[in-house]
Specification:
Rossmann fold, alpha/beta, single chain
Amino acid sequence: MERIGLIGAGRAGTALGAALAAAGHRLVGVTARSSASRERAARLLPRVPVLTADEVTSRADVVLVAVPDDLIHDVAHALPLTCAQYVVHLSGAHGLGPLAGLDATPVALHPSMTFPGGPVRLDGVMFTATAPDEAQAMVERLVKSLGAQLQWVDDEQRARYHAGLVHGANHLTTLLTQAIDVLREAGVDDPAATLRPLVAATLDNTLRSGHHALTGPIARGDIDTVAAHLAALRDSTARTYAELARATVELAAADGRLDPETAARFGEVLSGHSTERDRTGEAPR
C-alpha cells in the first residue's frame, strides 16, 4: 500500500485519514497549525506524527491536500513534490486546475459525504474522481480499500457535479430549518418528530423514483391551498416557498400532471413572491 501524507487537519481530511488508517494504509504524517487542528489530529489520528508540510511530503507516496478550496493551489504549489508522487485534493467543485504544473500526478477526489468533525463511516459512500490515466489504478485501490464506491467525472464537469450535491444536500438543510421554524410558529411542540417520517419517506421515494415521487398540493392542482400557504408565510421563507413552488409547477406541468391552464393559474398566485421583485425594493405581496 502507498504511504499517505495528510496536508491539513480539517474535518474532511482527518476523517478520511482515520478511515484510510483503519483500512490498513500507512499515514506517515499530518500537518496541523491551529490548536483546533492539533486537537482534531490527536483525537482522530493519535498514532500519526504532526510534522511540517515539507516533512509530510518527503515521506509520502500520496499527498492528500485537505485544505479549503481557495487555498489548494497555493498550498500544493508550495510542497516539494516529485514526479514519483501523487497529489490529491478533496474539493468537489475543483478539478485538476489547482494542481496544474506540479511535478506530481494530480488527482481530484471528492467523497459525497458530510463530515461533522468526528469519525465517519465511508463504506458505500460514492467518491467522484478526476485524474489522468496513470493515476486511476491508485485511486481505485484507495477507494475500494475503504469499501466505498467510485465514479469518474470529466474535469470540465466538476462545478456542475458539485452544484448538484450542494443543491440537494446543503440547501436541504436550509429548507428543513425554515420548515421547522414554521411548524414551531404554528404551535407544534416537536417539529423534527413531525417532519422526520414524511421527509424520510419522501427522500427515499425520490431517490428511487425521481419526479414520480412528487405529491402535495401542486401535484393535485390545489391552487387555493398554495395561496393560503403564501398568505401564512413571511419574508425569506415565503420567497423560498414561492421559488420552489414555481419549479414544482414546471416539473408537474412537464410530466403532464398539470394542464396548461392550471399551471398558469399557479403562476398568477406565485407572481407576487418573486426574488426579482424583491431586488427592486418592492415588498412581496
